Amino acid sequence: MPISEKLRRRMADRLQLDRVPTDINGLFAVYGAWCRHVPFDNVRKLIALRTGDTGPLPGSDATDFMEHYLAHGTGGTCWSSSNALFELVSAYGFTARRIAGSMRDLGVPGHGSVKVTVNDMDWMVDSSMLTMFPIPIRDELYVYRDPLFGVEVEPTEGSHLIWFNTPPYDDYFPCRLLMDNVTYEFYMERYEISRTLGPFNHHISIRYNRNGARTMLQGHTRHKTTEATGVVSTELTREELVTELRDAVGMSAQIVNQWVACGALEAQYEPPQHAPGPLTVKPPSTRGR
Length: 289
Prior knowledge:
Elements: H1 5-15, H2 24-37, H3 43-50, H4 62-72, H5 78-91, E1 95-103, E2 111-118, E3 121-125, E4 135-137, E5 142-144, E6 151-156, E7 159-164, E8 173-182, H6 184-193, E9 205-210, E10 213-218, E11 221-226, E12 230-235, H7 238-249, H8 253-261, H9 264-267
Antiparallel strand pairs: 1-2, 1-8, 2-3, 3-4, 5-6, 6-7, 7-8, 9-10, 10-11, 11-12
Helix pairs in contact: 1-4, 3-8, 4-5
């Protein structure tokens, strides 16, 4: 469901957006603001799962997603955050569509994202990758090597492989685009499937960009990347992890307290239920090395 004009204005205030033209500069402005402010995270989802909430998963509705972001600083995982970003760019007058892809190129639509068409060219704005700039989707190789926000786009097999920089992996992570212009109902169907089958149901997984740094929280480990230091990985104590959520990510004390109370804090110090395996493929720019 589209968001109200009042909510769009409140989001604009929080994201520090002024008037936005419906051209490529405007798209860069909206997506860049989202990447600087809205985290990718599974905090609300963990609370819902651990408390036995049987209602729709958190953020299923874009208004619910944005109201909780404004009140508590939370984001969401790919299905909820992509839908919210789709509704935000649509509210600004852009021609957008929901798309689905497969992380690790496994052939299963397990990732939601958004394409926006500007002057007959498609651009991908991804609420999980948080690349700071829209990614051009075209029928030629695109390579942008950057210590924080590197991306490569590889046209292959009638689709595109998106390679993006995500700590703690040493090389870029692949995501194949599988389905274009899917429905909201499809998003919610895939989101509901993730209630029992998905990588974000035990340990926290949070990505956020702040003050020239790109940070990934996985369980109780923080992977923080800056141009000066590269990736620095630090294991956090319980107190440090709670402080990180409040002070660095910017979540409210209320939502962090709910997360702690449901047992999620202690779960961060348990072995992961689905430990990711090593990457066995390389992006175009590093193949053969």
